[in-house]
Amino acid sequence: MLEAKNITKTFHSEGLDTYALTGVDLAVESGEFVSIVGRSGSGKTTFLNVLSTLLLPDSGEILYKGEDVTSMTASRLNELRQKDFAVVFQFHYLLPYLSALENVLLPYMKGVAPVSKEARLRAEQCLERVGLADKGAKLPGHLSGGEQQRVAIARALVKESSVLFADEPTGNLDKGTGESIMNLLADLKNEGLSIVMVTHDNEYAAMADRLVSMADGKVV
Ligand SMILES: Nc1ncnc2c1ncn2[C@@H]1O[C@H](COP(=O)(O)OP(=O)(O)O)[C@@H](O)[C@H]1O
Ligand SMILES: [Mg+2]
């Protein structure tokens, strides 16, 4: 379903070249849960960002259902980002002055137009799905770290995406809370979601169908 072919990416900053990705290949099947592990600086985040279209590679192809993401028109790319792909980060990036429910509704918000009843219902269902049915009115600052990450996952689910990209989703959480987030991801996988997760926790990585190891900008 998603295939990366010979991806390279070099960063140029302050006169220094960093070869972050030096020819990465990966294929993810529909409904598969893949975890990417590797030392800090091995290129995991760069690769995930390239896969999720947040970052353009220098060379190589990203094929999603056969279509090359790196040469898509801006409008097709927008469609993909709004519908098919969802991203969760280590830091949840919730807006602090919006309630949990409003944060989940963000993908539906366009300018000042009010969101539809259906969107609201869908957002409530997603909050319920992550175990926060009764916390929708709370501000992120009044939720625990694990609950905040659950809201971020609910926001990623609201669009009924096909692929979830998660960069160290448990990186900021204590062990017990991290485990509950991992169990939630495993349940979502069983419901048909494809997941690509970056982690440096080997125990969590082993919960995926397949483990991919990176070192020095390559899959090893
Ligand atoms: N925006 C950037 N500018 C310059 N160098 C970067 C940038 N992003 C990442 N790098 C460098 O690229 C390499 C890979 O980084 P990253 O993908 O974040 O690794 P990981 O997520 O495995 O820790 C590192 O050496 C990092 O310092
Ligand atoms: Mg990283």
TrEMBL record:
Pfam families: ABC_tran
PROSITE patterns: ABC_TRANSPORTER_1 (PS00211), ABC_TRANSPORTER_2 (PS50893)
GO terms assigned for molecular function: ATP binding
InterPro entries: AAA+_ATPase, ABC_transporter-like_ATP-bd, ABC_transporter-like_CS, ABC_transpr_LolD-like, MacB-like_ATP-bd, P-loop_NTPase
CDD domains cross-referenced by the UniProt entry: ABC_MJ0796_LolCDE_FtsE
Gene3D superfamilies: P-loop containing nucleotide triphosphate hydrolases
Keywords associated with the record: ATP-binding, Nucleotide-binding, Transport
All copies of domain ABC transporter, residue ranges: 2-220
Name the record gives this protein: ABC transporter ATP-binding protein
